[in-house]
Specification:
Immunoglobulin-like, 20% strand, elongated, Helix Hairpins, 328 residues, alpha+beta, five-stranded mixed sheet, binds copper (II) ion
Length: 328
């Protein structure tokens, strides 16, 4: 596009590194306005001071009446700035449209803003991450939503920014041009810990990006770790307490349950063992625990978990055999 004098300055006194295609346009217009201001400001101030001294009031000095009006001069100082203002508007409008019109064939990432963190979910393989990983030299499309209040997504190095208002989707696209790690901010005051709502965006080569996404969905090797990993990712954590984390309801705590007798809603009793856990995961209502049968029911995970995953969850729950009691 424009390749004037200062357009290629990408990093320096005024700006963070330029890491997307938007940077060139934004920085160019910024420098253009800055230099136009300097070029007008300096001669105007010099002339003003000169005239103040030259035409100051002195005894016996009479001003000249002819200098009150000068048509060519007035036309010039009206028309020239008008064209400059129109040009600035034009450049701004072109840049805005470029940012607003999302290209086809994008790499899609869902963005979830919440008090006070960012979470990213990749359409390619369902991976999730609190850091935004992106491939270089691709058009990226973000579909953003807020879980609570108004946040604003901002990556200064990309010159990309958009509000995220709860209750609707917001879209943002950009094209990263430089590998590296850059800041990502919430830039709209959103409550107490707004200032901690910061994370990083990492731009990677295509292979490294693919490897990263694969790594994000890779389950840990150790069976107990894997169970914990699944507990966090399969929403169990939202209803069950385990170790020292997780919800304090509506499901029973896993801590200290293993091997004990559990009273069921149908009046019988079972031992909390592999089979009971497996049944609870696949057919929760078949072995509903007494006292919890009216609690917001546990969904069946039939078809959603592989046998090996259920084994890992069992190993994890078993590892909490002598876990601390759930705090009230
Ligand atoms: Cu925020």
């Amino acid at each position: 596009m424009n390749s004037l004098i200062l357009a290629d300055i990408s990093e320096g006194f005024w700006f963070p590194p330029a890491a997307s295609t938007f940077a060139k346009q934004v920085d160019f217009l910024y420098y253009a306005i800055l230099w136009i201001s300097i070029i007008f400001f300096i001669p105007i101030v010099i002339a003003m001071i000169y005239f103040m001294v030259k035409y100051r009031q002195r005894p016996g000095y009479k001003g000249s009446p002819e200098a009150l009006h000068n048509t060519p001069l007035e036309i010039t100082w009206t028309v020239v700035p008008s064209f400059i203002a129109i040009w600035i508007f034009w450049e701004g409008a072109v840049g805005y449209l470029d940012m607003a019109i999302i290209p086809d064939d994008t790499v899609d990432v869902a963005v979830y803003a919440a008090k006070w963190n960012w979470n990213f979910k990749y359409k390619e393989n369902g991976a999730e991450s609190p850091i935004l990983y992106l491939p270089i030299d691709k058009d990226i499309k973000l579909t953003m939503q807020s879980k609570d209040v108004l946040h604003s997504f901002f990556i200064p190095a990309f010159r990309a920014k958009r509000d995220v208002v709860p209750g609707r989707y917001h879209y943002l696209w950009f094209h990263p041009t430089r590998e590296g790690v850059f800041d990502l901010f919430c830039t709209e005051y959103c409550g107490d810990n707004h200032s901690t709502m910061i994370t990083k965006v990492q731009v990677l080569s295509d292979e490294k990006y693919k490897a990263k996404l694969a790594e994000l969905v890779k389950e840990p090797e150790d069976i107990v770790e894997r169970g914990k990993w699944l507990y966090e990712r399969k929403a169990c954590k939202g209803c069950h307490y385990a170790g020292t984390e997780g919800a304090k309801g509506p499901g029973p705590s896993y801590n200290g349950s293993w091997g004990k007798k559990v009273p069921l809603a149908n009046g019988t009793e079972v031992t909390f063992d592999e089979n009971y856990v497996k049944t609870s995961i696949l057919n929760p209502m078949e072995a509903a625990r007494k006292g919890y049968e009216t609690a917001s029911a546990m969904p069946s995970y039939k078809g959603q978990l592989k046998d090996e995953q259920i084994d890992a969850l069992i190993a994890f729950i078993r590892s909490l055999e002598s876990g601390p009691a759930r705090p009230k």
